[in-house]
Amino acid sequence: MKSFKNIFLLSLIIDLISFLPIFLVYNGGEMRDMMIESMGIEGLGQSIEGMAVMDTMAFGFGFIGAGYIASLVYALRLKDLSALKAAAFILGIVHLAWTLPDFVNFAKGSAGHPPLAFMILSLVPIAGLFYVSQNGIIKSY
User: Fold this and answer.
1) DSSP character at residue 113
2) What is the pLDDT of residues 72-108, one digit of tens each?
3) CA-based torsion, 5, 11, 14, 18: positive or negative
4) CA torsion 14→117→52→31, rounded to 10°?
5) pTM
């Protein structure tokens, strides 16, 4: 799977799945309660200021996710091999920077990380983007 288009589409799908919980948390409900409970901060759910911070955090992270998704959609439109390689490498770095804190928290035993399945899933776009940045080919469809 050396095609840029395949890796960009795979990354796009995984990013949509990965950022969906952030949008659900921002809208409140059970997902928000589960995230607050998993943080292990006593009294956070009853704190008006704490909930305002949670809403702001989810709002900001939602826009970061939208930026990732928009970048991948734009990268799908590129046709030049060198531009595709550069875009894949930059997107790989950005994805790595986004997921690295989760792995650091997991290694430290902290509670501030998503479930392990999502963490493993987040490695797929990173590996794919770095791979095609070095070995990618342009397929004509």
Assistant:
1) S
2) 999 999 999 999 999 999 999 999 999 998 899 889 8
3) negative
4) 90
5) 0.81
